[in-house]
Structures are given as C-alpha cells and as structure tokens.
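During the second year of the project, the team shifted from modelling isolated chains to modelling whole assemblies. The rationale, set out in the original proposal, was that interfaces cannot be judged from single-chain predictions alone. As a representative example for this report, we include one of the complexes processed in the last quarter. Its constituent sequences, exactly as entered into the pipeline, are reproduced here:
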Amino acid sequence: MNDILLEVNNLHTSFFTDAGEVKAVRGINLSLEKGKTLGLVGESGSGKTVTALSIMQLLPNLAKITDGSILYKGKDLLKLSQENLRKIRGKEISMIFQEPMTALNPVFTIGEQIREAIELNRNVSRKEATTQVMKLLESVGIPEPSKRINDYPHQLSGGMRQRVVIAMALSLSPEILIADEPTTALDVTVQAQILELLGSLQKENNIAIILITHDLGVVAERVDFVAVMYAGIIVEYASTQSLFAEPLHPYTQALLNSIPKIEGEDKKLNTLKGSVPQLAALPSGCIFYERCSKKSNNCKDAVPQLIEVKEGHLVSCCLYK
Amino acid sequence: MSELLKAQNITKDFPAKAGLFESSLSSIHALNDVSVAILKGETLGLVGESGCGKSTLAKIIARLIAPTSGKVFFEKNDITSMKAKDLKQIRRNIQFVFQDPHASLNPHMTVLATVSEPFIIYGLFNAKEAAASAQKLLELVGISKEALSRYPHEFSTGQRQRIAIARALALTPKLVIADEPIASLDVSIQSQIINLFAELKEKFKLTYLFISHDLRVIEYVSDRVVVMYLGKIMEIAESRDLYKHPVHPYTEALLSAIPEINPQAKKKRIILKGEIPGTTSLPSGCVFHTRCIYAKKRCIDEIPALVKKDGRSFACHYPL
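Output from the structure prediction step:
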C-alpha cells in the first residue's frame, strides 16, 4: 500500500476555554490514498472541521492537538517546524472553505491574490505568474479570465468566488485538497457545477480530496470512502458503496432515514430525537446512547471501539461484537 | 379546494443605487408579473435559487412590503390597498416563520414572553391567560415547562425554531408562510421540524406556503409546487407530477442537480452553463433562455406566457 498519502493516527484535539477543556476530536484514525476522495460527514459539532484544521495545523489559538500523529508521505506533520510546515501547507496540502467571501481578501483583485501564492513559492517573473493565473482561472471555468483577473471578490457571484478559491488552492498543484463544505453556501445548480469541476480537476491532476459535508447526497455521488463522525469520534467508516448499501451504525441509519426521498412515499420522516450532546459534558458510555433507537441496557456504560465488521467496513457500536 | 389567497400580476421593483452619492437610476426587478393562488388546506411549495424572488413574493403575500403593481387577495379581500387598521386583523391570519431563529426572536425577551405577546397585542387575554395559552403552545412544539423563563440564546437552533413556530401559531392563523424554516438546521433536526410542521398542520387545519431551496424537502412537504426563476414563475404543478415529469427545462435542470442518495443510481445530470443573470437587466424573451439547453430563436424574442394545461401551468415555448 504505497498509495497512502496521508495517515491520521489517534488524533486528539481540544479547545482550552475558560470553562475548561472541550475535546472536539477524540482519537480518530484516517487514511487517504492518492487520487481518491475521502468524505467526512456529520452534523455541526461532530469534529469534521476541527479534524481538517488539525491536519492543516491552522487551528485557532484556543485549540491544541493533544495527542496523535499526522503522517504525510511518512513524515509526521506534527513534528515539523513552522518553516517546514509552510513548505507543505498550500504546496502539498491545500484547503478550501465553505464561505468563499471570507476566504478571499476584499481589497485585492482576484488576480493579485492568486498571483501572490505563485510568486511567493515559485521563482517566476510577474509576467509568467500572471499567465499562470489566467490559465488557472480558465481551468476552473471562469469566462474571460483576462477581464476577470482585475475583478474584486464582491464583483463575483458566490459560485464564481468558489471557483476563484479553488483556483487559488490548486495554484501550487497540491497532492491533497481539503474541501470544507465547499458547496453548502451555493445553490443546487451551482453546487452541481462546482462538484463537477472538482471531480474533473481531481482526475486531471490526480489529487486526493478530503471532502467535508453534511449532505449525504454529495457523499454518495462524489466520495470513495466515508467516515461518519459524531461528537468527535468516527462512528462508522466504509467505502461509499458499502455504507449506503448497508449502514451499520444506528446513527448512520437514522441520518439516512431522516432525509426525505424523492418519489418515495410521503410517510412520516424518521427522526433522531434530541440533539448532538454537548462536547463539554459527554456521557461516560456510548456517546450516542441518549438518541439511539436500538440501545439496550448494555450500551449505557460500554465504550464501543471502532472495529472491522465486514471487510473495510468499520463501526463503533456495541451491537456488533 | 377554495382559494385562501390569490396574488395577481405582482410586480416588484427595488431601486438600485449606482453609488453612494448617485441617485438611483436603474432598478432591480425582483418580481415580474407573478400570479399564484394558495388553496385552503394545502401546502404550497415555493422553490428556486437565490435571487429568484421567493422571499420577496412571500413578503408581499404577507403584506410586509407593498408590490409595485398587482394585487393580493386574502379570502377575497384586497389586502394591497387596505388601511393599517384593517390590515391588523388580516395579519393575525397570515403568520411568518423565518429562516434564522437567532434573528427572529427578541434576545431580551423570555420564551414565555415572546409567545404570549401576540395575545396581549391583540387584546385577547390578560397576562395570566396569555401565559397559560403560551405555555400550552410551547409544550405542543416540544419546549418543556422548565425552559419557559429562559432567553433565546439558551436554546439550540432547532429549539429556537420551535419557539418561533409556537409564536407564529399563537393567534391560530389561517396561513403560515415558512421561509426556509429549516435551512439553518442540521439534518437530524431538520426532519424533527418537518414532522412538527406536519403535525401542527393537521391539528390546526393550517395552510402553508413553504419556501425552500431544498428540492427533497419541497417534494416531501408540498401538495403543489411553484418553481421560480429570476422573478418569474416557470412552472406550477402537483408535487408528484412535477418531480416525475417536469415540463419546464429549468425544472428539469433543477431536479437533475439534486445529489442522488443512492450511489448505484447514475442519473442524467444537466449542468447549466453560466450564472443566473443579474436582476437589473433581465434577458429578453424567456428569462431562462441564456442558460437553457433547448433555447431557440423564439425564446430570445418572445416572452412565454404562463399557460395552463392538464392541471399544470408552465411558461415555456417548447415544453418537455
């Protein structure tokens, strides 16, 4: 298995707030193969974004990685100096965010912003860099790049801005792209455009993608492997085929059942009762116990481990032993 | 079913400011000759992308803003030309649930005060009776007794939306307009709120205008669906018919863009080219022609009228 680019082992990330330590990510393991897409799904507060920010080491000041390792091509990113880390961030691993308006600087033209990354990292003339920016803008489907290059972010629509952010993220041809809810702020038809674009860019450049989303439809269509997260841990991990064919964890099952199906019968939606537990006050046993429809007496105090139930299909639930 | 509300030839223009010190020259054409009826007891779904005029239409229907031209009739009364005093009586019958319950609830008022306020404003009950009724309502939407004296910030977004719904229902309105009521919620909470809407509809015999950009949710909740694009109605049909067989190319493209939950199913996807044009200068002819994969010359020259055929309405020269 030489194809593994990134391996996250036993990652723990906590926020140290005035009210005490909040464990946002509690021991997750992930691996990402070259050219493949790994989906991280879960609701707000499940730890998806914190996982991504941990990999990039772009965590806010309050947060710290307390344990674990993040191996990129065998090197532990957590042991690198800031200087060496900068050589990886952006060039090898790049990230795009949900809200492209906040990811872009409003007082610089989009051309300047993309060019900056190229000029800082590649030894090229301004003219050459500008040519590269044009090419990038063209490759992400921005019409008339020679005109648009002088536009400010506010002059572009949400979809166009996201294209610019993608162009910027790909400007240094990274091996890994982390996309955090890249289409959540966009309309469906624009979402379809952007997902299509990401897919074709991935194929062309053989990029591995970590796609963070709460939309299971996007996962089903765009992802090779899925990690379902809940309250800071992975509760289920499988290939997309396997996960949708036979979801094992009651949480995954409930999530799938709570989405209205088109052309399905309009019966009452199955819902999950309650909401995601507060990270500051997690229950001692199974974290899903309160909301689980399949719980038994054994579950309350048991702490299930993520175990392989079928080939490549892992689940963290006491029902499977 | 009889018509509860009818909007007739609604047009709404907003002045567009060219710059800080310039007088407004152009205008934003938010709605362009829109006519739609809401039938008693139905859930009418309203779907379309950002900027298509969904929310503007909803606000005009609730008479929160006035249309530039056109009329809205609520139970046959023209509410567009009504005086403020008479309008107050209509308002209790048309209630609104907004997308963001952080913004729609007053942060300085306890939950109980928020939900009892409508009774007091309309002089229906004294403070004690109002509180009792509010408590009952809150219980109905799933807010426990212990939480009544709390403030909005102490609740999760899902609970806050429940409170907003309780307030909207306080005066037993006939029409509830829900504008993206679940867009800011997590998937598992969304389904709770959708079910709550369904339960309350049955209990209070409500009529809903349900606005969402989520096509799956619209299909699930609606009896009939209105599809809008750039301030115009593209298609109106029974929910089942619309999803099975869209007649308007825009509806077709919109439906094809829904991510498929079943990874086995490979469906035909129409990727629309380009962007939604700006609303200050609308395309000639059919507003959708710039992105339509079937557009012909007639579509550029001639505005298609909304025609009725086989129980559905559509505005397209070349329906599918």
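Chain B has eleven helices and twelve strands. The interface with chain A takes residues 49-50, 156, 158, 186-192, 194-195, 198, 213, 215-217, 219-221, 243-244, 253-254, 256-264, 269, 271-272, 274-276 of chain B (CB under 8 Å).
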